[in-house]
Every structure is written in structure tokens, then in C-alpha cells.
What does this fold into?
Amino acid sequence: MTTTDKPTQENTLGSPSPDEPGAQTLTLSVGPQHSGSGHMRLIVELDGDIILNAQPDPGYVHRGIEKIIELRNIIRSIPVIERPSIIDASNLNHAWVRAIEELQGVEPPARGQYLRCLLNEMNRIMSHLYWLSIYGVFLGHTTMFMWPLGDRELFIDLAESLTGARITYSYLVPGGVRRDLPQGFAEEAIKRTEYFEKRLDEYENIFFKNPLFTSRAKGVGVLSRQKAIELGTTGPTLRGSGVDADLRKDEPYAAYGELDFKVHTRPDGDSYSRVMVHVDEMRESSQLIRQILKKLPSGPVRRKAPIVVPRGEAYGRVESARGECSFYMIGEGGDKPYRARYITGSYRNMAAISAVLEGVRLADMPTSWWSIDYWPVEADR
Amino acid sequence: MSAQKPVQSDDPIELLADSLNVWVGKLSDIVHKVIDTEPIRNVINWARMYSLWPVNITTACCSAEFGAASGARHDLERFGVLPYGSLRQSDLIVIEGTITKKMAKRLRMIYDQMAIPRYVIAMGDCAISGGLFHDSYSIVNGAHEFLPVDVYVPGCPPRPEALEHGIIMLQEKIRSSKVYPQS
Ligand code: SF4
It folds into this structure.
């Protein structure tokens, strides 16, 4: 950056004269060693305090998962496909089993379908809470870092009693789920969800109505409805811009067709709307958990499914916590897919980062771009 | 440090400065020896043990459990572990999982910029030996390939309790280590 106001002066330092493009701006590299980026880098061009242009530089966590899937059989690759979004493992797993089941022509039993939805919704809450806690860090609000992470443990305990693992469940397998509900799960889950909803009211008072948050989120980082659709965003980002799109409603899978829930949208498209969509979704999921437990049919949880990917092509997609996650799979009749294309919600939302950050102040950068709920590991795969 | 010996000059001030340098060097040796004696070392190590500030660098998905460990239930801060943004003031890298080739360069860069003493914890199977992704084309199979690792915490991902155990092990290691590791 140069701020000299004598444009004709001989410039011995080799810095550009103020007339040249780029001379009045400052380019910052934020990350990957971060306090305001994740495992990624943001290249931000500034004019004074205003962001002119922000480019994400992803790929710090690219682990070649699509290739690894081709090397493992379909059961062994379940842990691998969970890893990109470890805090939202069950939803990604669901997209995988949907694609396989479509090829195999296997329909899991009703109870299995409900249990899938149960874990999905718990995962959605956990994922949103984790995201919210990082949002608190980015705002310098330590209470909002501690509270969501503490309340997330409520659901982690539940999931652990259901699947045996804290966050990496590998619970959904082709043909159903691995195991049935443990004893006393339903009562415990109902107690915890009710407590959690009360906690959300407390969050409201300490954070969502706090000027510390609202003044930095309301009207900041606006993504218009038109732009959100053009950029192909999904999930809470899209719904925060006022588009009513949710795969659970639009293309009901598993047991979602029989469940009663609302899709929450907010019209404004700013950071505040995106945050509040997450919060509304948490309430909805909490309600859904109770509903699932009430409607849970009896019967087996798993049907026999072969470890084979029949010849053909299939497309499995679900609404994960961060948007639409999909697998496009080509089978050749072996126990591994010939090719599996794996696209996650964060990957689709990456395009929105530049759009959201344009015109925002540098100090608002972390809160604006994090409101997209971009999880770099998930986007890089 | 250049290998060449500087040319002796006749300037008395420079001569004086040279001899002073020799004396300062000797003095610092003595100071190092004194500090490394038992009672003083114990005090310094005690201070180091309980103020391990890790750098804010996340490499992959184990960061979710690192986050949970710093959060409300597990609260790493009671061990003196407070994630910190500035790497000049921090003394610990917790490598949270898979190290891709792109990240490995940055990790090394960060390690080189940190002040001594600095410690490394390799968290997760991926950071130890490649783990789930050992046959991937884009990762480094283990942190030991480019960094000296003090403590390994196995698991995929390790539970927060395991990470806490790793930190206690590192503290034990610091308790019995010398203040000036090179000398
Ligand atoms: S050890 Fe497991 S959880 Fe940790 S980074 Fe590797 S795959 Fe992810």
C-alpha cells in the first residue's frame, strides 16, 4: 500500500504510483493460521476499511476422498465419507447409503428409517451448535463459545448411547441402521430436548438480542435472493435469503414424509437472518426428535443388503446441516463403486463467500463469512 | 554465524568491544548453568507447564474434538491451555489430524516462527501415521516427517479425555526437562 500524494515523484522503492490500479488498496492474506478463518485462506483486498474483493483459497484439507472411496468396499468407506464433516457425520452417511440403496433396490424397514431421521436431527443440532460456538469466538463473545459447546454434549451423550461413538457414528449402513435404541433412550431424549429448548431462550437474551451481535450482523453481508439462487447456494444460506428450499420437504426421504415440521426462512439475506435460520432449525429439530420418538414404529431396524454395488448409476442426496449433500455413483457390480462424485453443502456455498464479503468492513469479516456456515474440511473433502 | 574470523583491527574501541563480547558470552554460559540448577529450573518449568498456549491452527477434522475439549464440559483452560491467535506468544502446536501437503509447508513455517521452547502434540491417527487416509495422494503420512513431535494422542478422533491425558503427559515431560535444551 502506498499513500504518497506526489504521483510524479521518482519512486525508488519500486512501489506502484497511486494512479496505477491496486496502488490504493491493501491485499491481506487471512489464514490458514487463523483467528478469523478456518483451515483455509481468505485473500482480502481492502480499500481503507472496506473489503473490495475477497477470494477464498481452499484446499488445505483436500484428502482425495473420492479416490479413496474407489479403493475401499462400501462398508469400509463409510468412516471415510463421514470424515469431511465430522460434526455432521450422520447426514453425509445418509447420502451415501441412499445412493447405494437406490442401486441395490433395497428399502430399509420403517423403524430403521425413523432411527436414521432421529440421528440426522440430533446431528443437525450438534452441528449448528458447534457452528454457533465458533461464531461466538469470532465475535469475542466467550460465553457464546462455552454455552453451545456445553449443550452440544447433551446430544453427544445421547448419540453415544445410541451408536457407541461420540461424533463418528458409522450408524447408517445399507439396509438400515446398525443397532436399535438402548433402554431408556426415549425418556432421556425427551428430557434433554425440552431442557435444550429452554436454553435456546436463554441464548436469545444473552446473544441474539445483544447489540454486540445485532449491530454487527443486521444488514451486514447481504446476499440477495436472486444472487443466492444464481450462485447455487443451499441449506441455511439459501433459506436465510428467503428461498423456501429444503430437501426434507421437497423430496421427502427416509421418514421425513410422515413427519410434521416447518421449513424456516428469513427474507433479508444478511448475517443476522442466516444465524436466526440456524436457531429456528435447532428448535425445529428438537421438536422433530420428540416427534420421531413418539411415532417410532416397531419391527426390525435392518434388512439384509449385499455388499455389492450393482451395475448402473444412482444419485443420492439429502439435506445435511449445511445444505444439500449428494453422491453420484457409478457401479460396476463389484464391492466398490467405479466412481463416486461427492458434493457437500459447504462446497456449494463456497461461491457465496465473495458475494457476502463484498463491501463489508474488515472488522465484520469473520462474522459475515462464518454466517454462511462454511466448514472447510467438508468443502475440500 | 559466519565461519570466517574477522580481521583484527587496531581501533581500541573495537578491541574493547571484542573482548567484552567474549566476556558477555562467558557470563551467559554461567547464567545458563546457574538457571539450570535444580531449584530455579523447577520454578521455570512449573511456569512453563501450566501456561501451554496452543497456536490457533487447525489441520483437519480432529479440530471438532479439540473444540469440544476447550469447551464447557472439558475445559482445557484448567490445565493452562488457552488457544491463542498470535504464534509468537504461544508455545504449543496441537496438530489436529490429517496434514495435507499444502498444509505441511505452512505448519513448518509456523513452527519455525515460534519462540523456543515450543512443543508439538500430534493428535489423531492421521497426524501420527496417515490413519484412514494413509493411501491418499495428497497427504503427509505423519507429523514426524517434518516436525519433532513430543506427544502422540491416538484415536480417530481422540476423545477430549485422551487429549487431556496427552497434555498431562506433555506437562510431565516439561517438568523433568532442562531449561536450555540445546546446552
Ligand atoms: S484422525 Fe480421524 S478424526 Fe482425526 S483428522 Fe484423521 S480422520 Fe479426522
Observations:
- The mean pLDDT of chain B is 83.
- Chain B has six helices and five strands.
- The radius of gyration of chain B is 21 Å.
